[in-house]
Write a structure and sequence with these properties.
The chain is mainly α. It folds into 2 domains: 107 residues; 123 residues, no CATH class. 66% of the residues lie in helices and 11% in strands. The protein contains 7 helices and 5 strands, in the order H-E-E-H-H-E-E-H-E-H-H-H. The strands form 2 sheets. The protein has a 3-stranded antiparallel β-sheet, covered by helices on one side. The radius of gyration is 51 Å and the shape is rod-shaped. The protein starts with a helix and ends in a 16-residue tail after the last helix. The C terminus is likely disordered.
Length: 264
């Protein structure tokens, strides 16, 4: 749009310059020749002038027009360069946007791949944990009164013939069983001055606690589906907590073994 305006501007100046030359050529010049006053137009004087003067006059007119169009050409080129700079800037911005879009898309795809691998890993860990849960079971805790070896009692962890917890909620049931027996045994220890004769801390409890702790660490940032399984369906953090509290409670295990002397 601006280029067309500049061309029109150049044409208008050219026409104006031509009109000025035309008007100037029609003006009269009066002079005295042989005591006679004579008047001629500039055009007539131009026609009567020697060839070298005609050439100088035409060269001056042509030079003026050339200078005029040099200015117009410079302005046109400046306008074109400005348009090119704007187009280049637009292309650069578009390319930057496309690059950012590709980066975000690649990042989303990479994140999806990472989350897929993370979900697969967590689910494999959950499967391993589920297969390890039955190893937590044993029959009972044997207690005796402190200083009296003749009186013993049992606090049952699993009732005789009771089915082991199974299914998706097995970890929740095991956590409940561990928390209950922990509470009962410690109450006997505190209220009745009892000590635990057996069992020693089972290795299976340490192993399952380590598995649950690893799952809690690995599930951070995982897809929502596996997070829901870990936190709300299987409640692995609950299982990890009750196992940790039981393992760290020295009074819960055989006195001469303690938590640092586990048994199978």
């Amino acid at each position: 749009m601006r280029g067309a305006f500049l061309l029109l501007f150049g044409v208008v100046l050219t026409v104006g310059f031509g009109w000025y030359v035309f008007d100037l050529s029609g003006q009269h010049i009066c002079f005295v020749e042989n005591e006679v006053l004579r008047c001629k137009t500039n055009y007539q004087k131009f026609l009567e002038s020697p060839p070298n003067e005609k050439g100088d006059t035409l060269a001056g007119l042509a030079g003026s027009l050339a200078f005029l169009w040099i200015i117009v050409t410079v302005l046109l080129q400046s306008n074109e360069l400005s348009l090119q700079r704007k187009e280049l800037k637009r292309m650069t911005e578009t390319q930057a946007e496309q690059t950012a879009l590709l980066y975000r898309q690649d990042k989303r795809e990479s994140r999806a791949i990472e989350q897929g691998a993370q979900e697969e890993k967590v689910r494999a860990m959950l499967k391993t944990l589920s297969s390890s849960l039955p190893k937590l079971g044993f029959a009972s805790f044997e207690l005796r009164q402190n200083g009296d070896h003749s009186k013993t009692k049992r606090v049952y962890f699993l009732s005789s013939g009771a089915a082991l917890p199974k299914g998706e909620a097995a970890s929740v049931e095991w956590a409940s069983l561990i928390e209950r027996v922990h509470r009962v045994v410690i109450r006997h220890v505190e209220e009745n001055d009892n000590v635990v004769l057996s069992p020693r801390l089972p290795k299976s409890w340490i192993a399952v606690h380590s598995q649950a702790k690893a799952i809690n660490a690995e599930v951070q940032g995982a897809p929502d589906g596996v997070v829901e399984d870990v936190y709300y369906r299987m409640k692995i953090p609950l299982l990890e907590r009750v196992l940790r509290e039981a393992i760290n409670e020295e009074r819960l295990w055989q006195s001469n073994g303690g938590p640092h002397a586990p048994t199978d």
